[in-house]
Amino acid sequence: MANRIVQTKAKLLKNIEVANNYYKILVSCPQVAKAAEPGQFVNIKVSEGLQPLLRRPLGIHGVRGQTIEILYESVGKGTELLSKRRPGEYLDVVGPLGNGFGLSLTTRQLWPILVAGGMGVAPLTFLAEKLREIRNPKSEIRILIGAKTKSQILCVEEFRKLGCEVKIATDDGSKGYKGKVTDLLKNLFFPAAGDRRPATIYACGPRLMLKEISRLSLQYKIAAQISLEEHMACGIGACLGCAVNTKDGYKRVCKEGPVFEAKEIIW
Questions:
Q1: DSSP conformational letter for 27
Q2: Using one digit for the tens of pLDDT, what is the confidence trace for 119-151?
């Protein structure tokens, strides 16, 4: 059953730059915090005026009691305006939106492998927290983080504090494995696919990365859930601007997604 969506004025408690052009905000948003699930997002009005007209969809990075945490990159006018908002101000927030990662009871028996590309780490920390809650504290949760260069690698310590094993890939080799994070995934886990425990992959990142993960999951018969990143307007499924092609016809990333089974998507 879908969570009830609310629109609320949320008090901004923190807005700090954690790396070059990367920011983390904390907002008091009890109704959203109570209902939020990993993989869902909120739609935020970044300014008091009409410019920009559209809200900005941002993944929920974590829940801290009655507050939600959001990690974002300042890449355009909207997120630049958001980066200038100050603690004590109020943000107009709609959420939680979309369908998140499926965490059924069978997840206890699966070997979770999280794969993040760039800002794809944002929702996966929330997912790692939930996985840790429902699994044996000594069980393995592995996270592979990929980016173009080391300055774009985020959240390593957050994952390590959760007890996750962290592996890093950079395109330029400035940190960790030199190459694509999907190559690292393939090299580390798939050669022994027939010998290891049942696994599931949870991934968020650029489209090409998710396409390759989908291909690998089908080839090696590994379950995979992927969180798609698409341009959104309304965020509630009304405008149809974020539709993607699936085996069951077109589906809206903001409504039926952003998380889909990898085998659903027609690339």
A1: E
A2: 999 999 999 999 988 866 666 889 999 999 999
